[in-house]
């Protein structure tokens, strides 16, 4: 993605956040926008500890509690998505930006001989999953709005 498009995307998500905060009656703080921009500059999944360390390295003065509270706001606003990949970390939830992302699924690769230490997360789309979704909708007379699918494994030698 080129720099101009990235700047347009950041402006758009900041507007989404601004409108959400106004609608919900929440304070409009600069820290929230800084955290949002850092998340949308990432190209990978993250957890709260990752984000906190990044903010500290960049000399932003935000507490971990502020990040946790802000994450909850972003989740509710539809700006990020939460995952439970089963990793063994202090903060077991992972997150990813979601405003511009299409529906996708995850293949979680653990390091061999580790206790659920993640080596890699591969995102993928398979059109056959869409067919399964449609079959379930028809069979149960429902409208599926979203789904999450995780495969877990280790790499073969």
UniProtKB/TrEMBL annotation:
It comes from the Bacteria. The keyword Nucleotide-binding does not apply. The keyword Amino-acid biosynthesis does not apply. Keywords: Cytoplasm, DNA-binding, Metal-binding, Repressor, Transcription, Transcription regulation, Zinc. It is found in: Cytoplasm. Belongs to the Fur family. This is Ferric uptake regulation protein. It comes from Chryseobacterium gilvum.
């Amino acid at each position: 993605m080129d720099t101009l498009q990235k700047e347009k995307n950041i402006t758009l998500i900041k507007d989404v956040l601004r409108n959400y905060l106004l609608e919900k009656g929440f304070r409009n703080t600069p820290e929230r926008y800084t955290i949002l921009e850092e998340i949308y500059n990432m190209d990978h999944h993250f957890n709260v500890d990752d984000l906190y360390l990044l903010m500290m390295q960049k000399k932003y003065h935000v507490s971990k509690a502020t990040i946790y509270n802000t994450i909850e706001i972003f989740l509710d606003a539809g700006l990020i998505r939460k995952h439970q990949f089963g990793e063994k970390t202090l903060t077991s939830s992972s997150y990813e930006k979601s405003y511009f992302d299409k529906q996708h699924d995850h293949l979680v690769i653990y390091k061999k001989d580790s206790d659920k230490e993640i080596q890699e997360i591969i995102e993928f789309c398979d059109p056959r999953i869409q067919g399964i979704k449609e079959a379930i909708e028809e069979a149960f007379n429902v409208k599926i709005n979203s789904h999450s699918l995780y495969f877990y494994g280790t790499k073969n030698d």
